[in-house]
Amino acid sequence: MALAAIIGANTGYLLLAFLPPVLWLLFYLREDRHPEPKRLLLATFIGGMAAAVIAVVAEIAILGQSGLLIFDGRAIPMALMAFLVIALIEEYVKYLPVKFLIEKRGEFDEPVDAMIYMMTAALGFAALENALFLLPILHTSVPAGIAVTVNRFLGANLLHALSSGIVGFFLSRAWFHPHRRHFIALGIVAASVLHALFNTLILIREDVAQGTWYLILLLGVMSMMVLIDFERLKKKSK
C-alpha cells in the first residue's frame, strides 16, 4: 500500500510538472494550418527533454560551487554567468533535437515548421526542467509546489517557448540565406540575450522596484515578436 501511494503521488507530481508545457504546446500547435505528424512532434518533445539533461550536465560542469562562473582563474559576476552559461547553453541544446531529428526530413517542408518544431523541443525541455525543479518542492509542500508550477507556467515555460520560437524564425530564414550557419548562430545569440535578460531580472527583481513588471514587459515584447514572426511565416507557407 505504501509503495502504491508513493508511486501514485510521484505520478501525480510528474503530471503536474508536465501540464504547463503541454498546455503551451497545444496552444501553439492550434496555430499551424498544416499540422505536423504526431510522431515527429513527440520525438521532438522527447528530444527536448534529453536536451535538458545535457544542459544540466554542462551547467554543473562549468559552474563553480560558489555560484560564479570560473574563467581563466577569475570569478565572473552572477549576471554575466546567466548569459555565458545558462542562457547560451540552453538555447543551443534546445536547437539540437530539431537539427538532428527534423531538419533533414521531408515533412520539414514549410518555413513555419521551423518555429513549430523549435517550440516543441523547448517545451519538452521545460517539462523535464519542471520535473527536476518541482518534485523536491512538491514532496515538501503541495500548495507551494502548485504555486511554483503556476509561476513557471507564466514565466520560465513561456520564456523557453518564446526564445526557441525566435531561433525557429531565424532557422526558417536560413533556408534562403547563403551563410546558413551564421544565420542560425545569430538566432541563438539573439534568443540567448533575451533569455539572459529574463534570468538577470529574476535574480535582481527583489532589489529593483517594479522588477516583476519588467519581467512581464519582456515576456510581452517577446510574445509579440513571436506572434508577428509566426504570422509572417504562415503567409509564406500557404
TrEMBL record:
Topology term for the membrane: Multi-pass membrane protein
Short name of one Pfam family: PrsW-protease
Keyword Nucleus: no
Glycosyltransferase among keywords: no
A single GO cellular-component term on record: plasma membrane
InterPro entries linked: Peptidase_PrsW_arch/bac, PrsW
Family classification: Belongs to the protease PrsW family.
Protein name: Protease PrsW
Lineage, broadest ranks: Bacteria, Candidatus Sungiibacteriota
